Amino acid sequence: MKPKVFSLLILVMVFALVAVAPMGKATGAEKIKLIMWHQQNQVDAREAFQALLNDFMAANPDVDIEQQIFNWVDVKPKVMAAIAAGTTPDTLQVIPDMLVPILDTGAVQSIDGLIKEIDAEVRIFDNAKAQYTKGGHIYAVPLFGIAQMLYYRKSYFEEAGLTKGPANWDELLAAAEKCHKPKAGRYGIGIPLAQTMYTDQVLWNFIVTAGGDIYDEKGSITFNTPEVVEALDMMKKLSKFSPPDSTNWVWEDANNALYQGNISMIFQFGHMSHEFAVNNPDKARDLLAVPVPKKRADGTLGMTNAFAIFTTDPVKREAVNRFWKFAMSPQQNAKFLGSISPGLMFPVTEAAGRLYLEQPGVKKYAYNIEPCLKVAAPTSKQYGFTHEYVPPSIGPIAAQNFMGAAVQKMILENLTPEKAAKWGQEQLEAVKVK
Length: 434
What we know:
Number of helices: 20
CATH topology of the largest domain: D-Maltodextrin-Binding Protein, domain 2
Order of helices and strands: HEHEHEHHHEEEHHHHHEHEEHHHHHEHHH
CATH superfamily of the largest domain: Periplasmic binding protein-like II
CATH class of the largest domain: Alpha Beta
Oligomer: single chain
Largest sheet: 8 strands, mixed
Strand content: 5-15%
Number of strands: 10
Number of domains: 2
Shape: globular
CATH architecture of the largest domain: 3-Layer(aba) Sandwich
Distance between the termini: 81 Å
């Protein structure tokens, strides 16, 4: 073959290869495709997740991650069906009680090595990791937490001669009494007294700050104890300063009472500053927050949201690990959480927490969110997940709100706290686990 003809043939082959190669995509190995399931289906959360994924994919062009969004009710049966069919996502958002039955299937991978690498950079709070630890192994990456604080109306406190929010139970009870003006349609505090999750949560605030629990390390019920009796007694004392219809309250009822100016204090999650400002734009700074008042210990109701990893493929596993190290970096974690409802989801590392307070949507409410980061974030606990052994009964106990039932019975039937604790102990012990 003549040299010119050979050279022309080579050029033709090169142009042919260029013509069939996809535009904008490197030739060679295909991208690693990952699927993420999560349940944050509000618009700002969907957009925040997509921005996080986009940032990661821009920095890691060999990986393609797709988010698929469900609601909390539908996702549980879908996950179990996917496990049975072998079609699980690569990573899945979980909360502590949701992970328990998933762990029993053996489908979730332990991630001790990954957590060790993340901890070396940012140090995740121990209480966040504890909710996903079993048998000495960690099974999910803690991405963010939510926790309750005590919110109070500054102007109502000033009218009552109070200059700061309560730090302990005695101050809380005194403030509720001083701010109580039922004839004017204003009550000292709004607390839920119904058989609902909200009542469970507020009661737990008092149990944990009294130094109590509802289980011991072996999984035995500890509801009929001096600490729980003290917590029930505090609920009963405060009930005298709560609106009469709070025996039927769910979250929305308490929130509306606050927005309308009918209550002076409320236990609620970190988004309350923003929500109150939306409903009372001219009075936004009148709502202030302090950590849950304590009797013996710092603490509050708090739940860590995390992501479990299913994939066993070594290539995908490396890519998933890479993503979670990226997502937990202080800059990315703060940017991601700061794009969602301000204050609702807080970082579970100090490094990200400092940057989180500087995010535009968060900064305007930093006066309330900072106390949450300093006290609630590292000390919050979720009932049933305070010890490494998680009793199977926590599922039905939480689902049926037996803790709230004890409170409601105490109020409606005027039981002593001691009798309510004894009744509650019997109900919790009677729970049958299938």
